[in-house]
Amino acid sequence: MDKNKLQADLFKGTAQYYAAYRPDLPIPVVNYLKNRFNLNGNGSFLDMGCGTGQSTFALASLFEKTFAFDIDEEMLKEARKNEPEGLNIQWQHRSDKDVNITEGPYRLVIACRAFNWMDQYLLLQKLHHIIEPGGGIALIGDGSFWTGDEPWQKKIKEVIQSFLGQERRAGNSIYSAPNEPYIVSLKKNGYKDPLLEAIPITREWNIQSIIGYLYSTSFSAKHLFGNRLKEFEETIKEQLMLVNGGKEIFIEHTEFIVQSAFQ
Prior knowledge:
Blueprint: H1 3-9, H2 15-21, H3 27-36, E1 44-48, H4 54-59, E2 65-70, H5 73-82, E3 89-93, E4 106-112, H6 120-130, E5 131-141, H7 151-164, E6 169-170, E7 173-174, H8 182-188, E8 192-205, H9 207-214, H10 229-243, E9 250-262
Parallel strand pairs: 1-2, 1-4, 2-3, 4-5
Antiparallel strand pairs: 5-9, 6-7, 8-9
């Protein structure tokens, strides 16, 4: 099967949940990027693997033009539907393989929760040609329920494993973690002043938003459960309430990791 088709199928059927339940880019992360790269409303911005546009919407007002691409047309449809007024965004249905060294220049390029799905070294070499002098790149992520440390997140992982197996799914295949931290990849590919910043955040969830989030992921998308979907939902609800002492609000203490560097 075509590799682009495999990538597009990773998040099959998840777009409506991604738009509704994936957390936005927090203001402290936006401010960090604004200060680190002196973003002042000028230049162009590229959001790679933009999904339904959470990171795009958070940063677009800091640039004259924004370009955002994703391989999943359903994700882009949700992004277009939810785009706030007054932002100059061009949505592109393409993959990281389609990034061309003649496009740009971009003042900032980011991948938020997406770089792990891309051909990282090849892409970093291409970006050298299309990031403007003094511009940079930021690779951003906040983990997932699969990797979370809260007791209720560990229980979620246990339940998913009981339904789908011990290994983390990536759509219809098995997830492969990046070979090295992105900060190392940035150094090896000649980017300047590489820096890893961990920005602490606290979030509140409830049963509905937890299940909605799970259906937005490649490791617990709805279709993976087949005819056991109802059983999965009932089990998750029961186990979450038990581990959380019957409380309806679930607190998450986590970090947004920003690994960034200059051209």
